[in-house]
Design goal:
Layout lengths: L1 H22 L13 E3 L2 H9 L7 E4 L3 E2 L21 E3 L4 E3 L2 E3 L10 E10 L2 E3 L2 E3 L9 E9 L1
Parallel strand pairs: 1-2, 2-4, 3-5, 4-7, 5-8, 6-9, 7-10
Amino acid sequence: MVKQFVLAGVVSGFVLMSSLAVAAGYGGGSGTVSDPYQIWTAGQMNSIGANAGDWSRHFRLMADIDMSAFTGTQYRIIGNAGTPFTGTFDGNGRTISNLTYKTSGYVDYVGVFGHVSGGTIVNLVVANAQLSSEGQYVGGIAGLNAGTLSG
């Protein structure tokens, strides 16, 4: 009986720590309309692209971000053909600068957002982006946009 309680406690602790680790990938918020995930750093911006399960959530850029630490194909593009970005990204009038994504390979959907479908991107500035691919749909903010871009 004691072993069952200990095991239950360990499993509960692991589940709690796992959920905290996911939330820790961003700078705050819960991903809802009223409490969007906060993006403060280049690492947090890159985390969005690494977590396709969050592409239907809500985000807000909280600072200007310099993406120059990510070169070649290190930046994780947000949204692709199979799982487009359908959430909301409020750039908050902030700038994402020095984003580089360069490949000589055939990669479709290249941009800060690769594929947006039904999602909304507002008040975002992208400066000094260098993007190249032999594939289709390459753009600064979105490679392919079937959503709303404004501001």
